[in-house]
Design goal:
mainly beta; five-stranded antiparallel sheet; four-stranded antiparallel sheet; 9 strands
Length: 138
């Protein structure tokens, strides 16, 4: 009986102090080379939801409002100074995905906008949000 008390103390101590290699209560364990759903960045604006998935550099633009405007993601790469856009002009309740293969893990800035697809002009937009692009190892 006295031998089991030190063993029990080690187990309880390990559970109390986080020893044992398991994530803490508010942490998520992510295996190397994979991206968890929590790594997907969501940018929202009236009538537009944008989801950026760093695992595959996909930008998905959802049109969420029947207002006659298209939904647009504007992506700025500060490393190159280039700006690209991903347009969804298919109407409310639809989504469109654009694949962008960003090299060298750049920091990107993405905003969600409404726009006019006939003139390719954006209108109302959210603020830019920073995201980190990366290609996981296979």
């Amino acid at each position: 009986m006295t031998r089991s008390i030190p063993a029990l103390a080690l187990v309880v101590g390990g559970l109390l102090f986080g020893c044992g290699g398991l994530p803490e209560e508010d942490e998520v364990a992510v295996p190397e080379g994979e991206v968890s759903q929590s790594a997907v960045k969501y940018i929202k604006h009236t009538g537009v939801n944008v989801a950026y998935n760093p695992a595959n550099d996909n930008v998905t633009v959802n049109d969420t409002l029947s207002d006659g405007h298209s939904a647009v993601a504007v992506i700025y790469n500060p490393n190159t100074g280039s700006t690209t856009e991903c347009w969804n002009s298919n109407g409310v309740g639809t989504s469109h995905t654009c694949n962008r293969d960003y090299p060298n893990n750049p920091l990107l800035r993405i905003k969600a906008c409404t726009g006019e697809s006939s003139t390719m002009k954006t209108g109302s937009c959210s603020a830019f949000q920073d995201v980190r692009a990366f290609a996981p190892t296979k």
